[in-house]
UniProtKB/TrEMBL annotation:
InterPro entries assigned to the protein according to its UniProt record, in alphabetical order: ITPase-like_fam
Biased composition (Low complexity): 1-17
Location of region: Disordered: 1-82
Name this polypeptide is given: Uncharacterized protein
SUPFAM superfamilies tied to this protein: ITPase-like (SSF52972)
Source organism superkingdom: Eukaryota
Compositional bias segments (type: Polar residues): 52-82
Length: 312
């Protein structure tokens, strides 16, 4: 089922470091050892997300509305080439960006004539600490919001049109906590069932054609890392931006681990579970199909492109 992607709302003010310190939380990492869990099955993964409603996707045809796709009408402005790809990563996180840049350059097909990248930070709209289905939703939100930000920024638009980019490739990672029932219960959210918090990374690769307006989605998910129960419960006590739905958390577990133990809030996985978050994400990314543009047999007039649509 497709979903609508609302415009990004400004994030709420973050708590101060002092307010995150809690003398009641355990601080010995040796007592907080965690385990790695398998990635959810393909069937379970499909339950976690739905691609955006095609009618809500921003139209990209305006980028080249003044140019003919086969013969540029502006002197010095190249025609859009579908094999000229711009990777857009909607985050300021250099480590996540490097994952996409390295993997795409390593797997780039011969017909891709140019591959560049640009960071365009975009809001997820699902709080600082997403839970359950909010994680995948936040990743899809970031992808759409990044394209909206690109279209609204003259410098981004000029970089695309000025170099003849014909394809955007969006790379998004959203880590989230799944509240999973204890193995063997087969029950979710039932009163009295003990839940286990597990950190997963949801990955989106989306191709946006600037010639015909199509959006093609590929998704993946990493193996998970269990979290210290005390820290998860403490994070939830800071509240949720979506009220009783309790999926848009205001404080991340990583922030609490950093404030109380000094662990890296973005990669507490390594000291507690022995595997870096970025190793898990890279592993998942390498298992994904990159939606590269197909070998072009011709070009089309971008000014006659249809409204944006999505395919899976």
């Amino acid at each position: 089922m497709a979903q609508q992607i609302p415009a990004a709302a400004p994030a709420e003010p973050k708590p101060t470091a002092n307010s995150l310190r809690n003398p009641n939380l355990p601080t010995d990492p040796k007592l907080l050892r965690q385990t790695i869990r398998p990635a959810p099955s393909p069937a379970r993964l499909r339950e976690l997300y739905s691609t955006p409603d095609p009618q809500t996707l921003p139209s990209v045809s305006s980028l080249y509305s003044g140019n003919q796709a086969n013969n540029s009408t502006t002197v010095g402005t190249p025609s859009p080439n579908p094999n000229n790809v711009l990777l857009v990563v909607p985050t300021a996180n250099a480590s996540k960006t490097d994952l996409f840049v390295s993997y795409l350059h390593a797997t780039k097909p011969a017909h891709i004539t140019c591959l560049t990248h640009r960071q365009i930070p975009a809001e997820s709209g699902v709080g600082e600490q997403p839970y359950d289905g909010a994680g995948p939703r936040g990743a899809l939100n970031r992808a759409v919001h990044a394209v909206r930000a690109l279209l609204a920024d003259e410098s981004h638009r000029a970089a695309v049109v000025g170099t003849g980019v014909g394809t955007l490739l969006l790379g998004v990672i959203e880590n989230f906590i799944a509240r999973e029932p204890v193995d063997g219960t087969g029950i979710k959210d039932a009163e009295g069932v003990k839940l286990v918090p597990v950190d997963y990374g949801f990955i989106v690769l989306c191709r946006v054609s600037l010639l015909d307006g199509t959006w093609t989605w590929e998704v993946g998910i990493s193996r998970g890392t269990t979290l210290p129960r005390e820290y998860w419960q403490a994070a939830e006590k800071f509240g949720f931006e979506d009220g009783e739905a309790r999926t848009y958390g205001k404080v991340t577990v990583g922030e609490l681990l950093q404030a109380n133990i000094g662990l890296d809030k973005a990669d507490w996985n390594k000291p507690l579970a022995g595997v870096s978050r970025y190793e898990l994400l890279e592993e998942a990314l390498r298992n994904m199909k990159v939606p590269w543009p197909e070998v072009a047999t011709g070009t089309r007039d971008a000014s006659t492109a249809p409204a944006a649509r999505a395919t899976e």
